[in-house]
Give the backbone structure.
Amino acid sequence: MNRREYLKKSLAGAAVLGTAGLGFAPNSYAEAVMGETWRNGEYVLPALDYAYDALEPHIDAQTMELHHSRHHQAYVNGLNTALTRLAEAREKNDFGLVKHWSRESAFHGGGHFLHAMFWKVMSPNGGGEPGNRTLRNAINESFGSYDGFKRHFKAASAAVEGSGWGVLAYEPNSNRLIIHQVERQSDLSLWATRPLLMVDVWEHAYYLKYQNRRGDYIDGFMEVVNWDAVAQMYDHARAAR
Ligand code: MN3
């Protein structure tokens, strides 16, 4: 197969998988963990792999629709705007507002990518303990047991001040897993870790159904965790070590 045939075949394969788009390599880490977040030169809202009501009763349909179609879309728009303004700044050689737009790009970029992964780590067929042995072993080695992990993940996520995220991540230096409390999603881009499982604990993610009972919401979230998706993220994260 020459290069042209190979490219043609790859693009056809990508189209079948619904991931067509130049500059979006199939089987990349980004595609595996986030879906299609970028198309035709701009960031886009990735489609969900399930219906808005598919995670009922743990995550309600109204919250899912608002969260995906309004909140996540706002991050996508904010990121595109910030990058456009930064491009204009380069063009005009006027960096007077570079601090503002850099912060905006980090905040909205953090929001876009974390939400894209958040949708992936949930599934109507989720919950229970991870079936993937490599991931299960890593959790046992890093946290002593699955129960130890679950208690730690819930406690850390519930204790995030105000708005933020609880994140299970792969730490490539020690080759172990670690739990983060993210209080500012814009800071996530600074870390040398690759997120594997994230729970959105901003109030918009649960308030309609759970009000101030964040712990109950986290329990509900654990009932829809898509461990196969997390295992896939873990594979890609380690492969890119
Ligand atoms: Mn959110």
Summary: The chain has nine helices and five strands. The first strand starts at residue 38 and ends at 39.
